[in-house]
Design a protein that fits this description.
Elements (H helix, E strand, L loop, with lengths): L14 H13 L8 H14 L3 E5 L2 H11 L7 E5 L4 H8 L4 E5 L13 H4 L4 E4 L11 H11 L2 E5 L7 E2 L2 E2 L6 E5 L12 E5 L2 H10 L6 H5 L19 H12 L1 H18 L1 H7 L10 E2 L6 E3 L3 H13 L15 H5 L8 H9 E3 L8 H12 L4
Parallel strand pairs: 2-3, 2-4, 4-5, 5-8
Antiparallel strand pairs: 1-9, 6-7, 6-10, 8-9, 11-12
Helix pairs in contact: 1-9, 2-9, 3-4, 3-7
The chain binds pyridoxal-5'-phosphate.
Pyridoxal-5'-phosphate binds next to helix 3 and helix 4.
Length: 380
Amino acid sequence: MRDIVIPFNKPTYFELQKKYILDAFENRCQISGDGEYSKRCESILRDISGVKHALLTPSCTQALELCALLLDLKPEDEVIVPSFTFVSTANAFASRGAKIKFVDIREDTLNLDETKLAQAISSRTRAIVPVHYAGIGAQMDEILRLAQKHGIEIIEDNAHGLTSTFDDKPLGSFGSMSALSFHETKNFTCGEGGCWLTQDDELFARAETIRNKGTDRTRFFRGEVDKYTWKDKGSSFLMPDLLAAVLLSQLEQRGIIQSKRTEIWNRYHQELEDWANINGVRRPVVPKECRHNAHLYYLLLPTETERDRFIEQLQVKGISAIFHYQPLHASEMGRKLGCAQGDLPVSEDVSTRIVRLPFFFDFSSEQQSTVINTVKEFVC
Ligand SMILES: Cc1ncc(COP(=O)(O)O)c(C=O)c1O
């Protein structure tokens, strides 16, 4: 086996982020949360997401945990999530007392299958948590219709989808709350990071308290109260301003980042079309209602054996291609927590056949040619 010469991911880096970090150290008095860089990031994130309020968090996981705390879950309350997703989509709610109900995904977008939602909804359902896999929107019109009909919250796990839209409306603006990720694999990154967003003034006021240890410290810093004290349940969900400095440098360069990523995505899609058709490989599907942010590029190989052989063949050539989520309904923890186990054939099938190709901002045209040529050497 050769050493990896083309990694799967390389975090985006700009010289500007060094400048902002130094500035945060040298010229600002606040490197903890809610400093000036945080506020500038939140303003941009509100604009992109088309919502009224945004709060930076240390991760998307913690933004989802904040959503769970705001739901005030009671025993027996249920939260619906797709099984084909990252652990945190379910764990944030399960660890705050919800019963998780898993629903299968659509074969085309790999997003929550809205046609399976109605049968998963019960009188105890409190929230539906759609994921916009690969930055391609879940079918938000139908999900919204069902949620409104049953009086259920929608919480969008928008870890992948910043700048994407569904029906020309930004992802992250459909639910009562949504969560973003700035982990190093994401389009915009500060290593680890996240953001919680909402349209709702009351949720926002409470979120400010919950994320600041259950205190009204944020209001105290704004001069709205003369001391701060314990007000609500809570935790510590602030992103240090130092990391916000890194994030801001990337959000300000979002045009450059997005145009490079779109170029990479489109090139994979075009140049692998004939090879995929000949070999029975499925490329990503983007429904006409969706404009996506080129977050990742995946392929679905015909079988698990072919997928594993594909990963191995690329690895031998020094290229790192990686599988993705294992279905949560079949996981050890899912079963331990007594999560409702459905018959979820698409999630199970996709997880065995999916592979993601190298994809990062610094990806050179030569590197991409090497990946594409190596992929084309593979015969199913
Ligand atoms: C769909 C989804 N939700 C949540 C997360 C968790 O994000 P974070 O690492 O920022 O906590 C991820 C991580 O990649 C993810 O893919």
